[in-house]
């Protein structure tokens, strides 16, 4: 666990439901800092293709139990699918299931 508060709080950003990159990191079995590096690279690639990265990843922060503000991303359903497509087949199936359950549990349309 990451020792943070409100990790599973789902947020709606401009009517788009998102989940924190911390939760996605758990889903894909990566360290959060490694996932952040990946997402920053994906944002760069999307920008090069003139694709708005905010459809996938929205820069955000979270507060640790030690009251430190740390960087993270709010990840949209599209962003979760983007990340999943970079995984092995076995992991891809697992994240699709978890993303579906996560967004469905909080009233998102999947």
Query: Over all CA atoms, what is the radius of gyration?
Result: 13 Å
Order of strands in the sheet with most strands:
1-2-4-3
Q: What oligomeric assembly is this protein in? A: single chain
The share of residues in helices is 40-55%
Largest sheet, in brief, is:
4 strands, antiparallel
| Category from helices, strands and their pairing | alpha+beta
- Please mark out the parts with pLDDT under 50 across 5 or more consecutive residues, or reply none: 1-10
Sheet-strand content, in percent, reads 15-25%
Secondary-structure element order, N to C: EEHHEEHH
Distance between the termini: 26 Å
In DSSP terms (H or I, runs of 4 or more residues), the helix count works out at 4
Q: How many DSSP-defined strands?
A: 4
Mean pLDDT across all amino acids:
79
Gross morphology is: globular
What does this structure look like?
This protein has 110 residues and is α+β, with helices and mostly antiparallel strands. Helices cover 45% and strands 21% of the residues. It contains 4 helices and 4 strands; from the N terminus they run ββααββαα. The protein has helices at 21-27, 32-48, 77-84, 89-105; strands at residues 11-13, 16-20, 57-63, 69-76. The protein has a 4-stranded antiparallel β-sheet with strand order 1-2-4-3. Residues 1-10 have low confidence and may be disordered.
């Amino acid at each position: 666990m990451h020792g943070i508060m409100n990790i599973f709080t789902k947020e709606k950003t401009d009517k788009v439901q998102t989940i924190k990159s911390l939760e996605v990191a758990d889903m894909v079995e990566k360290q959060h800092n490694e996932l952040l590096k990946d997402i920053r690279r994906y944002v760069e690639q999307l920008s090069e293709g003139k694709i708005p990265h905010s459809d996938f990843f929205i820069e955000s922060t979270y507060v640790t139990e030690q009251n430190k503000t740390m960087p993270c991303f709010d990840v949209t359903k599209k962003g979760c699918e983007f990340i999943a497509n970079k995984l092995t087949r076995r992991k891809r199936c697992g994240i699709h299931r978890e993303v579906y359950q996560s967004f469905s549990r909080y009233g998102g349309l999947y």
